[in-house]
Amino acid sequence: MELMEGEERGEDIARWPGAILNDDLEFWMTRFPAPLKNIPIIHLAIPGSHDTMTYTIERRNDVGPDEPAFIRTLGRYCSFVAKPIILNWSITQRDDIKQQLNGGIRYLDLRVATKPGTSNIYFLHGLYGAEISKPLMDVADWLTSHANEIVILDFQHFYAFTEQDHHRLIDRITQIFRGKLCPVSSRFDHITLQWLVQKRYQMFVVYRNVYARNYTNLWPSGLWRTVWPNTVRVDELIDFLNVELQSRSLDIAFISQCLLTPDTPYVVKHLCGTLQRDLVSRCQKAILSWISQKRPGRGGLNIVIADFVSDSNFLFCKTVIQSNTKLLQSP
Description:
This protein is an alpha/beta fold and 331 residues long. The protein is built from eleven helices and nine strands. Strands 1, 2, 3, 4, 5, 6, 7, 8 and 9 form a nine-stranded mixed β-sheet that branches. The radius of gyration is 20 Å and the shape is globular.
């Protein structure tokens, strides 16, 4: 399925650059060349955003349960000093969810938590962000107006969650995305963009908790492998990405995390710094180069995520999406 006969392949390549390398990434799946719509989605290159909902974080918000106890204590008793620092190292995206989707993002990395004294569920990363309902409804509304696009929601982490909280969250997800959820399958061979459109499935929900076993439309962690680089060094990041991609399973989805992560000692040394200025700016060029050198397809690039995906007019998304043209060419 990856290759076409010469003449038809040439036509698709000729059409492709103008369709992708412009400022309209809203409908990139809709405008995909026909041969690529028949390739399993685990063999396509799909851009995603790391900690997608951090644009909803505000300085005045409480420190989240994802932070160590001593950081939470600083946030409570020295908030004037501590919260601006936490904020600067917690925000990974500046654009709201509709802007990210319009810019080509199709994989959303989500972390959620409960908050004492309320039954609501919130996004978070260092500090609490928005209550989950409106951003998720924004995704559902966007999908309704983009009938041939699909989105992957990956609930990566759950903090301060009880079984009742899981039940409440799953009920909310089901209510918001009713009719759009792709049921779990042990194989991806048949799950192509064309098949999804025919079935009117627009949403995958990956739920990285054993509670997912109780539901037929919550995909378990084991079918969507993601490994965290956990480094502040660009050379270590690139080595890690290469090793993990080379050893990826051929039969499940795979997420490459193209990002640097500050640990506490690094933040202490850069108290006046920010994630974007001190780390993201250092790795963006290397990441774009790495993506450009890789190829999707069986065992190749699949989902690729990064921080501040809108930088340089969504150049990250364009680079990931454009790599799919290699599937129309001879190896």
